[in-house]
Write a structure and sequence with these properties.
The protein is built from ten helices and no strands. By secondary structure, the chain is mainly α. Helix 5 packs antiparallel against helix 6, helix 7 runs antiparallel to helix 10 and helix 9 packs antiparallel against helix 10. The longest helix has 26 residues. The protein is globular, with a radius of gyration of 28 Å.
Length: 247
């Protein structure tokens, strides 16, 4: 009888150990499969440390926005020497920036847009050059999104929408200018809060006022007034850009 009880105890112990081991495997993370129905799964990369995610963007990224203004002014005025000079500056800055930011989203796309911009400016293609420039800067805005505490992405996005409006005002293509003006209003409304800080609040207020006045001028198809308001926006946005540069 005692042997039978001993056997039961051993059996119970074996079952308990088996259940315990089974339970451990239930709560352990599943091993990542090596292959799926269409090949290998996407390789997941660990999130970078918080200190890495919240660093300031390289100052040269802000310099790109300033350089884009120089290039754009050359394009719309047919001053190709100025556009080419600005492009040379941009080409010098871009490799320095890539060395600092690595393989971020938007880098490869920016490479392609820059190649197209070089071709279009070399060919003195007015509309194509403007579109390629804005495409390149849109990629810079995407890159800026990875710097969570910086308004860089928003500053570049506003710059692009201002260039859109300005391009069609210069050509007096008022229907297109009005459509781009709506985009500028929407972009400015979304991005304005990210730029509002005590040290630069006056310039964001001025920009807000100028955007409203620009809308009225575009609707009235008044080129002189519209260009004056764009000049005011240029001044305020340049100050906002310089304020945040390196922060």
């Amino acid at each position: 009888m005692s042997r039978l009880k001993s056997s039961y105890k051993k059996l119970a112990a074996i079952i308990s150990i088996s259940l315990l081991l089974s339970g451990c495997s239930m709560f352990s993370p599943a091993k990542k499969p090596e292959i799926g129905p269409a090949g290998k799964p996407v390789e997941t990369k660990p999130n970078p440390p918080l200190t890495q995610r919240f660093t300031a963007p390289p100052e040269e990224l802000y310099d790109l926005e300033a350089t884009a203004g120089v290039i754009f002014e050359g394009i719309v005025n047919g001053n190709w020497a100025q556009a080419e000079s600005g492009l040379s500056t941009l080409q010098a800055l871009w490799p320095q920036i890539k060395n600092q930011i690595g393989d971020k989203k938007g880098v490869k796309e920016a490479d392609g847009a820059l190649e197209k911009l070089v071709t279009d400016i070399s060919g003195h293609k007015n509309a194509d050059s403007y579109e390629s420039l804005n495409k390149f800067m849109a990629n810079i805005s995407d890159i800026g999104k990875s710097y969570k505490l910086s308004p860089l992405s928003d500053i570049v996005a506003v710059g692009n929408t201002i260039r859109n409006v300005s391009f069609y005002i210069h050509d007096m293509a008022w229907k297109k200018a009005q459509a781009k003006m709506k985009e500028l209003e929407g972009t400015w409304g979304q991005t304005k809060p990210s730029m509002e800080k005590i040290g630069i609040l006056s310039e964001t207020t001025k920009t807000h006022s100028s955007v409203k006045q620009l809308k009225d001028a575009v609707e009235a198809e008044n080129k002189g007034s519209a260009e004056e308001h764009i000049a005011n926006i240029n001044e305020s946005m340049a100050k906002i850009r310089e304020y945040y540069k390196g922060k």
